Amino acid sequence: MPVCNNPSSLPAAGVFVADTGGGRVRLGQVSRTQSGSVYVRPPGGGAEWAVSPGDLRAPTEEEWARIRVLTTPVLVLSADHGLRPRPEPVPDCTPCAYLVQWFDHYTRRGPQHDESAAVDCAVEIRNHPHDPPKMTLKRGAPPEEWR
Predict the structure, then answer these.
(1) According to the model, what pLDDT value does residue 14 have?
(2) Between the CA of residue 122 and those of 6, 29, 125, what are the distances in Å?
(3) pLDDT tens across 117-129, in order?
(4) Alpha-carbon distances of 47 from 44, 50, 73, rounded to whole Å
(5) Distances, alpha carbon 102 to alpha carbons 61, 79, 94, 140, in Å
(6) Alpha carbon of 105 to those of 36, 62, 99: distances in Å?
(7) Given 19, 45, 49, 86, which is the most exposed site by the fewest CB atoms within 10 A?
(8) From edge to edge, which strands make up the β-sheet containing 37-41?
(9) 135: exposed, middle or buried (C-beta count within 10 Å: 0-12, 13-18, 19+)?
């Protein structure tokens, strides 16, 4: 990763810097320079701010570690790709049967799609028995028009 080694000159776009102005340190990546000011964005994106070149320095090793965390892409696993199996209801268990119907409802595409709620249903089935249920069940199965 590029480093700003000479704060008296204007750093190039893409360089990671530490802004020491204003009494606190803010990490950022130079997005552009204009009229003697340096414009910096937070690592990973966000609104840019203007900095005086004299307030910039190279990040420390600890700051580099934070920059690496903030700029590393996150892989999201989704039920849409078949990576989460459909839960199996416990035979003759009404709450389990309803939970599987709600799981199917939440994993479908559309306005009712809710990954978090689908996982909650799968966890509740896994934590059988349901006496008392750990999550608040909506009465019955999802309405027909939602399925």
Answers:
(1) 92
(2) 55, 42, 5
(3) 888 888 888 877 7
(4) 11, 10, 19
(5) 48, 14, 12, 9
(6) 56, 45, 10
(7) 45
(8) 49-51, 37-41, 26-34, 16-19, 56-57
(9) middle
How far apart are alpha carbons 35 and 8 in whole angstroms?
14
Nearest one of 28, 1, 26, 30 to 14, comparing CA atoms: 30
CA distance 29 to 3: 10
Cα angle for residues 3, 7, 10 (degrees, 5° grid): 85
Spatial distance between the Cα atoms of 16 and 103, rounded to a whole number of angstroms: 44
Tokens of 5: 């080694």
* 37-90 per-position pLDDT tens digit: 999 999 988 899 999 999 999 999 999 999 998 888 876 555 455 556 788 888
If you average pLDDT over every residue of the chain, what do you get? 80
